[in-house]
Amino acid sequence: MTIAAKAYAAHASDKPLAPYSFTRRSPGPGDVVIDIHYCGVCHSDLHIARNDLGRTRYPLVPGHEITGVVRAVGDSVSRFRPGDRVGVGCMVDSCRHCSECDAGLEQYCEAMVQTYGSPDAHAEQSGEAITQGGYSSVITVDQDFVLGIPDSLPLDAAAPLLCAGITTWSPLVEWGVGKGDKVAVIGLGGLGHMAVKLAAALGAEVTVISTSDRKKADALAMGASDFLISREREAMARAQGRFDLIINTVSAPTELGAHVNLLARDGTMVMLGLTTEAMPVMALPLLFRRRRIAGSLIGGISETQAMLDFCGQHDIVCDIETITPDQINDAYARMERSDVRYRFVIDMKALAA
Predict the structure, then answer these.
(1) Which of 133, 149, 207, 248 could be bridged to 116 by S-S, CB 3.0 to 4.6 A?
(2) d(CA 22, CA 4)
């Protein structure tokens, strides 16, 4: 027995996403079946659908910012029951026994299974060679990779927390951001606006760095205390050595040298944007102030649940624009023009009608 699913899928790198019907596996003992209500649209969805990394397998159903309601559970499931409000993020399995998994860092497990595009270990049951994501009506996921959504958070605006939220939360926690720390956020998009909200809620003094002042009012309303325009050389020079942590959310090659100089001694710039081109960095600005450039990838399951609980306590959600499934290709085109404030979310309930 399988579960029928409706979806929108990429069928080739140069073709628009189109309707797609497939099947999900029926729940095993530890599985949760989720009726998907909403799915956020991540910039990485666009990259993978267009085969920018050169390893996309088609047909592919993108989507890893999933919220919905539990339809059914397996006999061994103890954490969830039908009717629960839940979410699924960027991964649906891992090896469970490596040092990364033991540390609650499943995202760094070499056997981590992504929500879409990974070989599907349940292919015999689902009929799909690869995992298929959240641009769909239903999904079956092991209970260990399902998150509880706090009742205070609306499911639509909470959906992007499963990627944009945890991707920015994880480095803020890893680098110990707290009251009085000076944090800069490069780029005020889907990731950047969540970095601002979360860092401000943690007590940091937040500055947004952008190429223009077009989003200044939004940044200040989200909790930023300052706004820095990277094209203004004098302003950038005055800010040298100012920040303890810089969160770089830009998913395109950027000039890093001037931004590295903004770091204080022992300051760190964390790269979050998915880029496929090299960005040169001079060694001297790093050496003379013991600065660092680091990377970070989403977060583990327990860390993601902690982020959701924090957002529930502080009423933090994403700023979204809701679309219907048949608007996804227009949404991709607008994303390429940076024409969204600040995350598209697909109302997947339309597929179930």
Answers:
(1) 133
(2) 6
DSSP 189: S
Locus of tokens 């085969």: 51
Identify whether the C-beta of residue 237 lies closer than 8 Å to the C-beta of residue 231. no
Strand partners, 346: 39, 323
C-alpha–C-alpha distance, residues 244 and 319, integer Å = 26
Number of residues assigned to the chain: 353
Say how far apart CA 307 and CA 304 lie, in whole Å.
5
Query: How far apart (Å, rounded) are the C-alpha atoms in residues 232 and 249?
Result: 20
Rounded-to-integer distance, Cα 77 and Cα 170, Å: 28
The region, left, alpha or beta by phi > 0 then psi within -120 to 50, assigned to residue 21 is: beta
Tokens encoding 71: 């339809």
Instruction: For residues 99 and 89, give the distance between their C-alpha atoms in angstroms, rounded to a whole number.
Output: 21
Return d(Cα 328, Cα 17) in angstroms, integer.
7
d(CA 75, CA 162): 26
pLDDT tens digit at each of 353 positions of the chain: 799 999 999 999 999 999 999 999 999 999 999 999 999 999 999 999 999 889 999 999 999 999 999 999 999 999 999 999 999 999 999 999 999 999 999 999 999 999 999 999 998 888 889 999 999 999 999 999 999 999 999 999 999 999 999 999 999 999 999 999 999 999 999 999 999 999 999 999 999 999 999 999 999 999 999 999 999 999 999 999 999 999 999 877 777 888 999 999 999 999 998 777 778 888 999 999 999 999 999 999 999 999 999 999 999 999 999 999 999 999 999 999 989 999 999 999 988 76
Name the CATH superfamily housing domain 165-295: NAD(P)-binding Rossmann-like Domain (3.40.50.720)
CATH number of 2-163+319-352: 3.90.180.10
Pair of tokens at residue 236: 């950038």
Supply the pTM of this predicted model.
0.94
